[in-house]
Write a structure and sequence with these properties.
By secondary structure, the protein is of the alpha/beta class. It folds into 3 domains: 161 residues, Nucleotidyltransferase, domain 5, CATH 3.30.420.40; 86 residues, no CATH class; 144 residues, Nucleotidyltransferase, domain 5 (2-Layer Sandwich). The chain has a 6-stranded mixed sheet. A 5-stranded mixed sheet has the order 12-11-10-13-16, sandwiched between helices. Strands 5-8-6-7 form a 4-stranded antiparallel sheet. The longest helix is centred in the C-terminal third of the chain and has 30 residues. It is globular, with a radius of gyration of 22 Å.
């Protein structure tokens, strides 16, 4: 069963980051016979576009931010319509618009909730029992988030809650049957947003006439794509954005930890701008050319490498402090999959390896690190295809868009508690 029900349904995915906006448009072209004479839907990426914000650090000024985001999103969609002549902006028709918001606005957390037999005996039915689990998860996440940021629970808007793991008397189960007689334990993911910012984005979407908008968090896609790493005991996904980065830690296929870090690829542009006396837009262009080994003499590359060595050290130090301690409650062998715009920087793999290597008297381990792209995932390549001139499957910056599309076009809507 697929989410798309009509022939030629079109899906628009928009990934709004802290430095840039990416957009991908995909069309389901009905069924065609495969080599095994089976009919399968063809889902073709028709076009993609990317636009950087004209100003940096726009998230420090609420009103200023709204105008800049609206302008940049409009430019992104207009560029997309130019790239795909069969679609024009403003987009109309049977579109489903799926939007991922920046980690400064859209949050996800995972918590473990335990209930004793005595507590469970008070509930009349399974629905009431799970409602209480969600209530406890919401409260625990809200309290932790307030302690972490100072933002009150009343300033949050809850979007989704999902039980991703159930245990009865310590054993994994698929459902909580006979809940009144058991010790219950639930691992719950909560997705929420800062209310004022969410309302701002809704206004932007209305102004740009985007219809049927669904807010979607990347963790919803990673939770099923992580199954492709089933041979690993644990996998850490790092999404290195412009100003913020996100991490997602899976152990034995289950999400265990998630969070955001206030550092990203923009730090490298800032160092280049300060050292060379240029603006940040020019510095970003210079950094991208350096990453792609374009138009640099040997002496020029040595100079850029020297400048970037400083932010690489700062990046490693920040992650060492903010992320490593959150993940290592015990030593575990795991791989690290890195993506996002910041993952393209030369030297980033070495910096990440330094952060997460473990060395003491009893244990030594250097994790396997891989810059991942859409072409690295079987599900993405199986479910999606693209027009020949579109090369987003080899670009780690577009991986979130591709993962979200794969998730939405592969399965029916998740059965979750929405608030």
């Amino acid at each position: 069963m697929f989410l798309s029900k009509k022939k030629n349904d079109v899906f628009l995915v928009i990934d709004i980051g802290t430095e840039a906006i990416k957009a991908v448009i995909c069309q389901e072209n009905g069924k065609e016979k495969t080599s095994k004479d089976k009919e399968e839907n063809r889902r073709i990426i028709k076009g993609a576009s990317l636009q950087y914000f004209e100003e940096v650090n726009i998230f420090n000024n609420f009103k200023f931010q709204e105008e800049i985001i609206k302008k940049t999103l409009r430019n992104t969609l207009e560029q997309l319509s130019r790239n795909v002549l069969s679609f024009s902006f403003p987009f109309k028709g049977v579109y489903k618009t799926i939007v991922s918001l920046p980690p400064t606005v859209l949050k996800a957390r995972v918590v473990n909730i335990k209930l004793s037999k005595k507590e469970n005996s008070f509930f009349k039915n399974n629905k009431e029992f799970e409602e209480y689990l969600f209530y406890q998860a919401r409260k625990k996440i809200s309290d932790n988030f307030t302690e972490e940021t100072g933002i009150l629970p009343s300033e949050l808007e809850w979007l989704k809650l999902e039980i991703i793991q159930r245990k009865v008397n310590g054993y994994l189960v698929s459902s909580f049957d006979n809940f009144e007689k058991i010790e219950a334990e639930a691992l719950i993911v909560g997705i929420f947003a800062l209310r004022d910012y969410l309302e701002m984005f809704k206004r932007i979407f209305r102004d740009l006439k985007l219809s049927e908008v669904e807010i979607f968090h990347l963790v919803e896609a990673l939770s099923f794509i992580s199954s492709e790493d089933k041979n690993e005991e644990a996998v850490l996904f790092l999404d290195i954005g412009g100003i913020f980065s996100q991490y997602f830690f899976f152990r034995n296929g289950f999400l265990e930890n998630i969070g955001e870090v206030g550092i990203g690829g923009n730090i490298f542009s800032r160092y280049l701008a300060d050292d060379l006396g240029i603006d940040e837009a020019t510095a970003r262009y210079l950094k991208e050319n350096y990453d792609q080994n374009l138009n640099f003499s040997i002496s020029g590359r040595i100079k850029i490498e020297r400048i970037l060595s400083k932010p690489l050290e700062e990046f490693a130090s920040f992650f060492q402090k903010e992320v490593r301690k959150e993940i290592f409650n015990k030593k575990v062998v795991f791989s690290i999959n890195v993506f996002g715009g910041g993952s393209k920087l030369s030297g980033i793999e070495k910096a990440i390896k330094k952060i997460f290597s473990i060395k003491d008297d009893l244990f030594f381990y250097i994790p396997q690190i891989k810059i991942v792209k859409g072409e690295d995932y079987y599900l993405v390549k199986t479910i999606l295809e693209s027009d020949s001139e579109i090369e987003i499957f080899s670009n780690p910056q577009y991986l979130p868009c591709l993962l979200i599309l794969t998730r939405k076009m592969s399965f029916p809507k998740m059965k979750i508690k929405e608030n």
